[in-house]
Amino acid sequence: MTERITGHTELIGLIATPIRHSLSPTMHNEAFAKLGLDYAYLAFEVGNDELPDAIKGIKALGLRGSNVSMPNKQAVIPYLDHLSPAAEMVGAVNTIVNDQGVLTGHITDGTGFMSGLKQSDVNIVGEKMTICGAGGAATAICIQAALDGVKEIAIFNRQDAFYENAARTVKMINEKTDCKATLFDLDNQDALRKEIAESAIFVNATGVGMKPLQNQSLITDSTMLRPELVVADVVYVPSETKLLALAKEQGCKTVNGLGMMLWQGAAAFEMWTGQEMPVDYIRELLF
Prior knowledge:
The protein is α/β, with parallel strands linked by helices. It is built from ten helices and twelve strands. It folds into two domains: 10-106 and 260-286, Rossmann fold; 110-255, NAD(P)-binding Rossmann-like Domain (Rossmann fold), CATH 3.40.50. It has helices at residues 24-35, 51-61, 85-90, 109-119, 136-148, 163-176, 189-197, 242-249, 258-273, 279-286, and strands at 10-16, 39-45, 65-68, 82-83, 95-99, 102-106, 128-132, 152-157, 180-185, 201-204, 230-233, 253-255.
């Protein structure tokens, strides 16, 4: 067996909770091995309370960088030295790059989502999208979709701590792109039904569908879905969420979160290593 860990191995982390289900360690470590790179990628259970110490640890231990997932994507920003233009616009970070103690936050979720749709032969340019969620991933998806030419976006979220962020996203899209964005309360099911009926794609960009909510779906009335509708979920474990199962029953084309995970990871991989991830090879392992 080829030696994988040496005294020179560069460490990259993943800080989130829950995170033990993640396929990111498999994806990155297999890509490192394929290219013969002396890197290792490990997942760490880190929530908002542990986050300040975790970021100090990235600097103190000299990690090359880290991925960031829920619930830390927005909370991590005050602890970083710089933000990329995209991360600043989105207001969230999913990738940290450590350049000799200087930590820069990036966001690759939006490009990962759009690339995942393209991989699944789904083109939503010029179309309308309805999306549930207002966290880091949802915001990145909305902004990237608007920049890529989606005509209209209806955003649904409960009146919680993220609702203000959704309002900010709508304002930014309407001011800085040619896309029209509108915000709705997720409790308004009549509005949700209407917007989905007018859309080419419905996206769940929340954690509903993954542990511990794996048996739940934001859509409980499957008559909201029609065969011509594409239904996408950012959740990839399980690979078929309750939402996607309901959509399949209605004859919809479905897209799970594996493609988004793969392509957002490929973008981060190149930032850390300076090399392109062997995407086709990794896709065969994961799909």
